[in-house]
């Protein structure tokens, strides 16, 4: 059987992790191709609606990464993101999404190698958990529409 | 319908070696909205940029996606190119296919697919971009400097010499700060007052500087370029225009035994006083707590003797409203006093003094005219012990940091003592000698080698008094922690430097962050050392951490340059990446429900309350409003808003949603 | 008023006198002292030099025993025992894993909620409030209060008094009508456990303490630790050898001083068991002369 290639979306902040991922590039450290990086000004900007949307549209896993605690370019955005993640965690379980599919990490602009590690580990992790098909099954079975109509 | 141009860069071979750039360009050309798609060897080169500019004109593009390196590298380049070709610069985006793709993956289908996914996502995003205009904020070209020590003086003079108006506010009756109290300064041993007082006079006489002494900041509102500040000018009980500063009142005041703040309690002052003879302004103030008239309603000797009839007992504090464009905080530091140390007598031994007290003893204008005499009986101490790091670098005392200035001033003190008491013996207990600085190490060596100061590496565990001597018990850690006992006549503690009294309240008034020790926090420890997190407020001197005179002066000049740069144009231009609360026609006016949950999460206090009123002036709705002068564009409020009423320009919900959906498009089959 | 007490080994042996005076003042102040049931050794110096878990398990068992019978406050007169129990409670409360491990070892639940009091804390909490009415004779003596090491350090663990210049006993002495002097050896080392192996070192260290107290005119040294007491009192021959003169300053427990002020019989306080006879003249502090207005000239007029 062919190996499952998970699709991951990384939501990262501009100042630390995006720059850290740039450093991974300038240091030519190789990592898995499964991740697509989306740039935000700050992890504090990351609306968890976007993460839900990513899952609804075929992502198997999500990485959220920003500045280390106390290093936020905007003083405290990463703390708000972390706090929001705490409450979103319970919501995910309720929605039937395994919270393990979201990887939360801090990667600074100097941690190019760490970024590669995070991506590789996350890909491995999601590969083990398997594809996220629950939402598609739900759509295909038409339950969603039925519920709305009746 | 958008008309988007896609430009795929080879970056020499940096991208094209692993990504099939021609395929990316070709596939992109078939995406909806794309009217032009090319690949080129070096997009950032002049011909590359020309390619973009010409395509914008030729195809009448409404959006540009450059698939090349990181936007952190060349986003400004391509935005500028777009602007030259007449396209709003914020309608261009970069797809990072080098740092995030070609450099980190091997050549292959997967890599090309990823590059294409990223380009597709950016095409999607850019079709939702809106044209943005840089924000222009008017600037009031008047600076406020808080604190009249050497840092405040320097900052005020530098700004004023650039031709801008400066208001200098000082809490005490005179400017000068701690530097005015010092005897001589390291490493040159030049007299502190001799170099400072001309600067003080310059401040007083400078046509661009308005000096408010005996005044404090009452409140601060507004934002960069547009602060509104209230200054409380405390009553001096004096008509300052009439007072000539003759000082007759101070000599005739019957209260003569009030410990002088300036002399660190070693000398006395009357109730109507100037802190020191060279005070600027040289006009006295009345200390209500000690004045006989304010205590008993009788006396008024000063009023009677005043030749110009300048005394005003009934005078009250005045509040001044001023408009300010930029603020420099230079409120300085304080030191721990000897009563902070139970092991050194908790202040009960008069001859255990702190560094500032020693400065006054050594100062030619001090209470002993520069003779080193001990406070208890006025004898000249024949054996003196200096204890460095008293409180500093001591987690048990809650002060983990190094106070930085003590090594140097302790060496100076020991040297001054030896110069004044030739047959005296000076001992210094230290942890490490930290003498980093121009001529600093040489200075300490001079104290040891030429002036024969005995340096002992070790700490002092306790001091107690025995038969009129102070027994100093310490250890010599270079001799195997051998116990050392010295019978000293006087002990000088180089006590820890701490944040100045009231700095926490001031930081809160200014919305400036501060650290756990109440020192003001800089915006970045390396690259923004004089900025604060609040735009338009800068730091100078020891209010950020304890520092010596050269460092304070350089920092003050640095802050002054920041202010001058801010004042260099009439309008302040800022990136338009700011949050905005939506507005729709009445009766709703906005989807904002006015919960103001966004207010506490904003690190910049940029969210204000806006009241919508009907024609009769009744408030019909309260809305959040983002102050674009203060907003830094982090977007935390956007993610938090429960009714999705705030959006971040440049990273709007539409843009981000389309980017996320689009990047996953191929996966959803 | 009931209060738990953990006596440890010394109070039943070399410091019987201390035990007697603690119980005597407790009785006089209507405090019933109840021993922690089935108590064991605190581990003293030996345990924590050999095995960390043992050194925590021994005191933890004592505290668990007290918790079991519902004692909320226990007083520990011996400063060494006090230190061991405080350290244990502090370490275990800050390390849940270790706490579970120790609970397993002692096969008992350990909550770590007991209020552990040293003798001065007990006095402050239970004796001082009722003291005023019970004093029959002021303790009119000039004394040097000696705290030593374990009662005040490490501050991080004990959070008691100001550890460099403690005032707990000094305040009690003042309450009793006595005079507590300011001196230099309040928290210096007495030589502690070297009393057996290196008596001459104890002679030197304790000698410095006794000498400083004597030359400052103290009539007695006040202590609250059995170890300090035996070194300063019992080791007087070694001390005299160091000082080269006969030192006859008596060493009293703080509880002795309270007992004397309360008029408790000297035998009941165990004073006769001290090696240096307890004999002190009455000391009335001189009334300070009224200050002459010119006496304190400012330093600028020197």
Question: Would you write up a description of this structure?
Answer:
- The complex is a heterotrimer of chains A (150), B (669) and C (302).
- By secondary structure, chain A is an alpha/beta fold.
- Chain A has a single domain (8-148), classed as 3-Layer(aba) Sandwich (Rossmann fold), CATH 3.40.50.
- Chain A has helices spanning 17-26, 48-56, 77-95, 112-129, 134-141, 143-149; strands spanning 8-13, 35-40, 61-66, 102-106.
- Chain A has a four-stranded parallel beta sheet with strand order 2-1-3-4, with helices on both faces.
- In chain A, β3, α3 (77-95) and β4 (102-106) form a beta-alpha-beta unit.
- In chain A, α1 (17-26) crosses α4 (112-129).
- Chain A is globular.
- The termini of chain A are far apart.
- Among the domains of chain B are: 4-134, Rossmann fold; 235-316, no CATH class; 333-498, FAD/NAD(P)-binding domain, CATH 3.50.50.60; 579-648, Alpha-Beta Plaits (2-Layer Sandwich), CATH 3.30.70.3270.
- In chain B, 50% of the residues are buried.
- Chain B starts with a strand and ends in a 6-residue tail after the last helix.
- In chain B, β11 (215-223) and β12 (226-233) form a beta hairpin.
- Chain B contains 18 helices and 34 strands.
- The mean pLDDT of chain B is 93.
- In chain B, the strands form twelve sheets. Chain B has a five-stranded parallel beta sheet with strand order 10-7-6-18-29.
- Chain B is α/β, with parallel strands linked by helices.
- Chain C is of the alpha/beta class and 302 residues long.
- Chain C folds into two domains: 2-117, Glutathione S-transferase Yfyf (Class Pi), Chain A, domain 2; 135-273, 3-Layer(aba) Sandwich (Rossmann fold).
- Helices cover 47% and strands 9% of the residues of chain C.
- Chain C has helices at 16-28, 44-50, 52-68, 79-93, 96-106, 119-134, 155-158, 168-175, 194-197, 199-215, 226-234, 236-243, 254-261, 266-269, and strands at 2-5, 32-35, 73-75, 115-117, 142-145, 179-180, 220-223, 251-253.
- The N and C termini of chain C lie far apart (60 Å).
- Classes of the chains: A alpha/beta (150), B alpha/beta (669), C alpha/beta (302).
- At the A-B interface, α1, β2, α2 and α3 of A face α3, α4, α5, α17 and α18 of B.
